[in-house]
Amino acid sequence: MNTVDIAVIGAGPSGAAAAIRAARQGVDTVVFERAAYGRDKACGDGLTPRAVGALAELGIGLDGAHLIEGLRMIAGRTERVLPWPATGRFPAHGAVWPRRRLDAALIDAAAEAGAEIVWGAEALPVFEGGEDGENGRVVGVEAGGRRWRAGLVVAACGAPGKAARMLGATRVRQEPYGVAIRSYAASPRHAERYLEACLTMRDADGHSVPGYGWIFPAGDGAVNIGVGALSTMKRFKRLNLNTLLDLYHDQVRESWETGPYLERPRAWRLPMSSVRRHGPGWVAVGDAAGLINPMNGEGIDYGLESGMIAADLFVRDPASAPELYDRTVGERFDAFLRTGRRFSFLIGHPAILGAGLRLAVGAQAVADITLRVMGNLVDSESPGSAGRVLAAADRILAAADPLLRRTRARG
Ligand SMILES: Cc1cc2nc3c(=O)[nH]c(=O)nc-3n(C[C@H](O)[C@H](O)[C@H](O)COP(=O)(O)OP(=O)(O)OC[C@H]3O[C@@H](n4cnc5c(N)ncnc54)[C@H](O)[C@@H]3O)c2cc1C
Question: What residue ranges define each of the domains in the chain, with the CATH number in brackets?
Answer without folding.
Answer: 2-45+98-172+271-337 (3.50.50.60)
